Amino acid sequence: MDQNELLEIRKEIISVAREMQDIGLIVRTWGNISSRVDKDHFLITPSGIRYEDLTPEMIVLVNIHDLSYEGEYKPSSESKVHAVAYRVRKDAEFIVHTHQVYASCAGTLGHKKIYSYFDDEDIVIPVAPYALPGTQKLADNVARTLKKYKDNNGIIMANHGTLCLGADSREAVREAEILEAACNDYLIDVCKIDMTHGVEVGYNSHLEDGQIVYDIADNPERVKMIHNQIYTKRPNVTHIIHNKSEAVMTVSRRANHMKPLLDDFAQLIGVGVKIPNNEDEIYHNIKKNVNVIFAQNDGAYCVGSSEEDAMAVAMVLDKGCIAYMAVMRNGEGHYLSLFECLKMNRHYRKSYSKLADLNK
Ligand SMILES: [Zn+2]
Fold first, then answer.
1. How remote is the CA of residue 204 from the centroid of ligand 1, in Å?
2. Which of 101, 216, 265, 346 could make an S-S bridge to 260, C-beta 3.0–4.6 Å?
3. Mean of the per-residue pLDDT values for the chain?
4. How far is the CA of 30 from the centre of ligand 1 (A)?
5. Tens of pLDDT, residues 88-126
């Protein structure tokens, strides 16, 4: 393949990434997109770069067999999963991996398959067993599932997201859309969960020259106390987003403790979050390495060292709360082990701070 043809594929990957952002199946730097180039190579989005900042030369050419790559940009850490998919499914020319909300939540229920429907047709969505992101074990689990379900172009990766294959980009994106609609229907019909995903903003604030600036002028004293305590106990926090979405509100009313059901929850929020029974408990729950502070019956405060970080935490929390409610109503689910969560949380903080240093 000559350079011009490669350039066209690089451009296509970027335009698909932006399209998937627009339809809400991909946010921030999460998820990744690849295209087969020849029998030995595929092109894939790089690790840790926002989709809006992508340029064609940042898309990385990776060897399907040994994962070696060229150039200064590192391929996505989930390249292993793409490589095995191209190896076991010769019909796949384009792959999208997403952390989309409803399919990811359906993948926390502990089922091997999700039975749903789309356009009046019954469909079965296989779920590849859980393994830590980036590991060979995860790649093996995905490979086995794709081999076993040869006619399925979309699978769920348990407690993580989806992998959607296609003969071209259209087909792969379409598959991701079908999975999302079918899994939303499953959550509505079987788990009785009908919740829109998003952030419903309450009392937000940020620091400006060491002073707390509130988005709304009139904040109740109790809210100011919480903000004050957060900034005091968490020196790196500069932004607080108060999320009062339906899912977060429901959890803040009914739960005592949230254990991670999804990888991104363990990475961005922490290994466990307590929901207080009274006002005093809120302050005890402000801890290092836990980026969400619940208020009883009043949503949760999501913190970060930038507005973007705090918003990412707020989005991941909302998805985590939908998963939590789905598991409660389903009566069972597969939680991540403390060991897995600690490992991911540490790894994420380490690589994320490195990345932040690079961007300075
Ligand atoms: Zn992922």
1. 29
2. 265
3. 94
4. 6
5. 999 999 999 999 999 999 999 999 999 999 999 999 999
Q: Are 183 and 116 in contact (CB under 8 A)?
A: yes
Taking only the tens place, the pLDDT of each residue in 22-50 is 998 988 778 999 999 999 999 999 998 88
Residue 69 has what DSSP assignment? Answer: B
Ligand 1 centroid to Cα of residue 161, in Å, is 6
| 100 CA distance to ligand 1 middle (Å) | 10
Q: Could you give the CA distance from residue 281 to residue 295 in angstroms, rounded to a whole number?
A: 9
Ligand 1 centroid vs 98 CA: distance in angstroms?
6
This model's pTM is above 0.70 = yes
Query: What is the side-by-side strand order in the sheet with 239-243?
Result: 211-214, 205-208, 239-243, 300-304, 292-294
- Among residues 258, 255, 356, 275, the alpha carbon closest in space to that of 316 is found at 258
- The rounded Å distance from CA 102 to ligand 1 centre is 14
Cα 312 to middle of ligand 1, angstroms: 15
Q: Do the bridges between strand 113-118 and strand 94-98 make them parallel or antiparallel, or are there none, so unpaired?
A: unpaired
What are the pLDDT digits (tens) for 231-244?
999 999 999 999 99
Tokens encoding 260: 């991670």
CA of 264 to the centre of ligand 1 (A): 8
Q: What share of the chain is helix, strand, coil (3-state, %, to 5)?
A: 45, 20, 35
Query: 137 C-alpha vs ligand 1 centroid, how far in Å?
Result: 14
Q: Which of 116, 109, 148 is nearest to 130 (CA)?
A: 109
| CB-CB contact of 202 with 242 (8 Å) | yes
- Ligand 1 centre to CA of 107 (Å) is 13
The amino acid at 170: R
Q: Binning pLDDT at 50, 70 and 90, where does residue 355 land? A: low
